[in-house]
């Protein structure tokens, strides 16, 4: 007969349920719920310590998550991902996927899901997601699907891919090794791959077509609200477009780019085209046309100064005030570049001034007026000098230009870190930490910019999830739940037995940890197999599969938390999209196991 759980086990289960309720209701932020969970565990175990432990051990358990290798790994991966972004290393990959997404958004997402699933079969899915997150963030900025609609499906696909082989995740290896210690034959790398691929085929339409529709759009501003800047784009002598017409190049440019004026005949080197568009659109136009938005000598001087001073080049927006000397002047006559060493890339004329008649010089250059917004590039000190001397108001939201000179280096650091971790030569925590350190040492990521790479919400959530996992394990709550499960399975058919085991392990995985689920679930599966006269292998595989069905909460797996900040997800997003996928996978895998093993 099953005994009642200990008081510590009951308290652990109650705290877990309350934390889940707090996350789902959303009345308090995730950071507050996480910190309260850690505080309750710390105070509770200090005054009511676990058996054979001291009060101080309870504090170590509650706060140990902040120094846990999983948290260090996640932070290091975030830093490396930041390095890829700020150096522009992923721009070529983003442009390739962008072409696919331009053909069809759904086709682009489908291909991306298949890539994530396939790669995760052989490489740990954490580095796979680390590589893909910045790519899809860049795609979202270029007008593709928002990250909130792509990262969750990508994460799910990568988790299914990791489920397909024994080397896909470290949890798979743990389950197989425990089963071997208990007397079962060693499962081959691809022994259960067909089962998972068939289940993945069933789940693919849900991840591809349904899951994005269940997720909101995290884009804050609509495109029409972005400022449009007018500028003169200079065609370079090395441009492939010399000799072509404007009508030939329009299909290659972003949709928000507009040409103004007459452009009869073929384009020639050093032509100055009057165009307008958003900042991002102008950058794409420069790349496609191989031109520049300012004189080459100005841009070269800024780059030389940035290299000599080891500073980042910034692009900021500045508003022309009533006291500015720039009013009625044009860019060529203003002397801005000579005086301050900065380059004005474009001018935005606010809607409130549209009714006024625009004034132009004899050369066709727009004369500046009060309220105009200038898009200016330069070093921070030069930009501040320019704003102060010419009575300009510097707006918030300065952007750093990618340090493209270090793009190859940052990509190499990430590639080596992923390769070393995927081969199992060193743990992912070590390779990620070494990669993050190299990003700092080589200047791919600046020390004073590291805060932009990290998410405080994710850090606190990881620490709380680690504390919950440990208290469920060490209080005996996981063992008691396993015993309760084994009592009720004697009268069920094999498919339901497998489904029950998988569902139990899935619950443990989503609220404790997959390592806890593996260590608790594998011996229980062996015991149930012996009691019911079933072969142990399908039951062990049910445990292995359940350990990887960690879609329903952000605390279930580290990649769930990696995508949380970039996708702007909350706890309810994981529940809303993850629970149906868990149910679908449990049902499909249970039936496939019965058919595969002839139970």
Overview of the molecule:
The protein has helices spanning about 5-25, 30-45, 55-65, 70-85, 90-105, 105-120, 125-140, 145-165, 170-180, 195-215, 245-250, 280-290, 295-310, 330-335, 335-340, 380-390, 405-420, 430-440, 455-475, 475-485, 495-510, 515-530, 535-550, 560-565, 570-595, and strands at about 230-235, 260, 270-275, 290, 315-320, 345-350, 375-380, 390-395, 400. The model has no long low-confidence stretch (mean pLDDT about 80). Helices cover about 60% and strands about 5% of the residues. About 45% of the residues are buried. The strands form two sheets. Strands 5, 6, 7, 8 and 9 form a five-stranded antiparallel β-sheet that branches. The chain has a four-stranded antiparallel β-sheet with strand order 2-3-1-4, with helices on one face. The chain has 25 helices and nine strands. With about 600 residues, the chain is an alpha+beta fold.
Topology:
Elements: H1 7-25, H2 30-47, H3 55-63, H4 69-86, H5 91-103, H6 105-120, H7 125-141, H8 147-163, H9 170-181, H10 193-214, E1 229-235, H11 246-249, E2 258-259, E3 272-277, H12 279-289, E4 291-292, H13 296-309, E5 314-320, H14 331-334, H15 336-340, E6 343-348, E7 373-378, H16 380-389, E8 392-394, E9 399-400, H17 407-422, H18 428-441, H19 456-474, H20 477-487, H21 494-511, H22 514-532, H23 536-548, H24 558-567, H25 571-597
Antiparallel strand pairs: 1-3, 1-4, 2-3, 5-7, 5-8, 5-9, 6-7
Helix pairs in contact: 1-2, 2-3, 2-19, 4-7, 4-17, 4-18, 4-24, 5-6, 5-7, 6-8, 6-10, 7-8, 7-24, 8-10, 8-24, 9-22, 9-23, 10-25, 17-18, 19-24, 20-21, 20-22, 21-22, 21-23, 21-25, 22-23, 23-25
């Amino acid at each position: 007969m099953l005994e009642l759980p200990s008081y510590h086990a009951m308290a652990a289960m109650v705290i877990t349920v309350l934390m889940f309720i707090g996350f789902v209701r959303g009345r308090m932020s995730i950071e507050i719920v996480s910190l309260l969970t850690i505080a309750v565990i710390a105070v509770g175990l200090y005054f009511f310590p676990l058996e054979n432990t001291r009060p101080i051990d309870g504090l170590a358990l509650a706060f140990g998550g902040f120094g846990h290798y999983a948290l260090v790994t996640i932070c290091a991966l975030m830093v490396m991902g930041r390095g890829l972004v700020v150096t522009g290393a992923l721009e070529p990959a983003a442009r390739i996927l962008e072409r696919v997404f331009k053909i069809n958004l759904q086709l682009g997402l489908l291909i991306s899901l298949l890539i994530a699933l396939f790669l995760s079969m052989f490489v740990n899915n954490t580095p796979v997601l680390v590589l893909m997150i910045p790519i899809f963030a860049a795609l979202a900025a270029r007008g593709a699907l928002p990250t909130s609609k792509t990262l969750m499906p990508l994460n799910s696909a990568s988790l299914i891919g990791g489920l397909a082989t024994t080397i896909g995740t470290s949890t798979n290896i743990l389950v197989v090794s425990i089963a071997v210690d208990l007397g079962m034959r060693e499962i081959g790398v691809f022994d259960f791959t067909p089962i998972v691929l068939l289940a993945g085929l069933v789940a693919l339409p849900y991840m591809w077509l349904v899951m994005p529709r269940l997720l909101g759009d995290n884009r804050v501003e609509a495109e029409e609200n972005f400022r449009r800047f007018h500028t003169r784009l200079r065609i370079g002598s090395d441009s492939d477009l010399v000799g072509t017409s404007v009508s030939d190049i329009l299909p290659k440019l972003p949709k928000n780019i507009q040409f103004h004026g007459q452009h009869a005949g073929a384009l020639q080197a050093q032509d100055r085209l009057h165009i307008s568009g958003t900042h991002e659109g102008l950058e794409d136009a420069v790349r496609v046309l191989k031109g520049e938005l300012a004189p080459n000598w100005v841009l070269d001087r800024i780059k030389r100064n940035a290299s000599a001073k080891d500073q980042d080049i910034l692009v900021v927006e500045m508003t022309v005030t009533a006291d500015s000397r720039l009013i009625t002047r044009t860019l060529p006559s203003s002397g801005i570049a000579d005086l301050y060493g900065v380059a004005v890339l474009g001018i935005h004329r606010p809607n409130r001034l549209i009714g006024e008649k625009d004034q132009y010089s004899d050369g066709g250059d727009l004369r500046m007026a009060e309220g105009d917004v200038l898009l200016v590039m330069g070093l921070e000190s030069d930009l501040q000098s320019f704003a102060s001397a010419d009575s300009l108001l510097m707006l918030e939201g300065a952007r750093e230009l990618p340090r493209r000179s270090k793009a190859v280096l940052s990509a190499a650091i990430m590639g080596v870190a992923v390769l070393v971790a995927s081969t199992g030569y060193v743990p992912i925590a070590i390779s990620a930490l070494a990669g993050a350190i190299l990003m700092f040492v080589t200047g791919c990521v600046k020390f004073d910019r590291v805060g932009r790479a990290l998410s405080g919400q994710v850090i606190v959530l990881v620490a709380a999830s680690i504390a919950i996992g440990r208290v469920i394990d060490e209080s005996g709550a996981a063992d008691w739940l396993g015993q309760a499960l084994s009592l009720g399975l004697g009268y069920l058919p094999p498919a339901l037995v497998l489904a029950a085991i998988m569902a139990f392990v899935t619950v443990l995985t989503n609220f404790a940890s997959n390592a806890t689920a593996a260590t608790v679930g594998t011996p229980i599966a062996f015991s149930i197999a012996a009691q019911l006269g079933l072969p142990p292998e399908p039951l062990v595989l049910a445990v292995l599969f359940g350990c990887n069905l960690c879609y329903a909460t952000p605390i279930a797996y580290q990649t769930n938390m990696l995508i949380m900040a970039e996708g702007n997800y909350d706890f309810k997003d994981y529940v809303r999209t993850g629970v149906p996928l868990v149910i679908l996978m449990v049902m499909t895998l249970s039936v496939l196991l019965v058919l595969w093993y002839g139970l």
